[in-house]
Design brief:
Distance between the termini: 13 Å
Number of domains: 2
Helix content: 10-25%
Number of helices: 5
Number of strands: 10
Length: about 240
């Protein structure tokens, strides 16, 4: 898990619990960009964004062609991709998604110019698609989901959003402010030092509020990081370390 967003550096007067308001205001982030852009984004307004899109595998010297619209896909592939996404997230949630670009990969050419790509553990998608969505009332300011397709349109990397068509409860997300307040009451995070992002838990097929906080240590000691993960649909803590 990458630490992508840092809470604003500020002093909160009045001790730990007095910092709740600061966390409500400052946990969140700005607009997303490819992962090779800035790793840290100022946080504000009680909202967060998802992890920045993963940088594709090392294709160099091969350069994938950028995709700007779904209409650039072959008609049959486009129809299969749209049908799959709708079947996974449902018509209502699909309406929130905005196509955010993608890539065309000529797999044979990639293997020719970069033979090491034949040993990639994951299959190389011929088409990489990205979709953006937001849920401001829940605190999700921006999230980018991606999926990978073979040349015939078959999915080889599932869209990293919950299968909410089968479980409609997963279309709802607990507000970040509400989750933060609960964690502060349990003294699991310090609102003056915590960072937050929303991620997708592929194994559990759910969105997760992920919090990180550096713990102070003595001189010369290794910095430790506390992590807390909360099921974004139920509000329950699922992991902490």
């Amino acid at each position: 898990m990458q630490t992508l967003y840092r809470a604003k550096s500020t002093t909160v007067r009045g001790g730990f619990l007095a910092g709740v308001a600061a966390l409500m205001v400052w946990v969140g982030a700005g607009s997303a960009a490819p992962f090779y852009g800035s790793l840290y984004t100022p946080v504000r307004e009680g909202q967060a964004i998802g992890p920045l899109p993963d940088e594709p595998p090392a294709y160099y010297p091969y350069q994938p062609k950028e995709m700007r619209t779904l209409e650039e896909l072959p008609a049959a592939v486009r129809a299969a991709a749209v049908a799959h996404v709708k079947a996974r997230v449902g018509e209502e949630f699909y309406a929130r998604l905005r196509f955010a670009g993608g890539q065309f990969v000529d797999v044979e050419e990639l293997h020719r110019v970069n033979p090491a790509s034949r040993k990639f553990r994951a299959q190389v998608p011929a088409y990489l698609l990205r979709f953006d969505f937001e849920m401001p009332k829940s605190g999700i300011r921006h999230y980018t989901a991606s999926m990978g397709l073979r040349g015939g349109g078959e999915v080889i990397r599932e869209l990293d959003l919950p299968a909410s068509a089968k479980e409609p409860r997963k279309t709802a997300v607990k507000a970040l402010a509400e989750v933060c307040a609960g964690l502060v009451k349990q003294r699991l995070i310090d609102p003056a030092a915590a960072t937050a992002t929303v991620t997708y838990d592929r194994k559990g097929d759910r969105l997760v509020w992920h919090f990180e906080q550096a713990l102070p240590g003595g001189a010369g000691q290794e910095v430790k990081v506390r992590t807390v993960e909360v099921d974004a649909h139920t509000g329950k803590v699922i992991r902490q370390s």
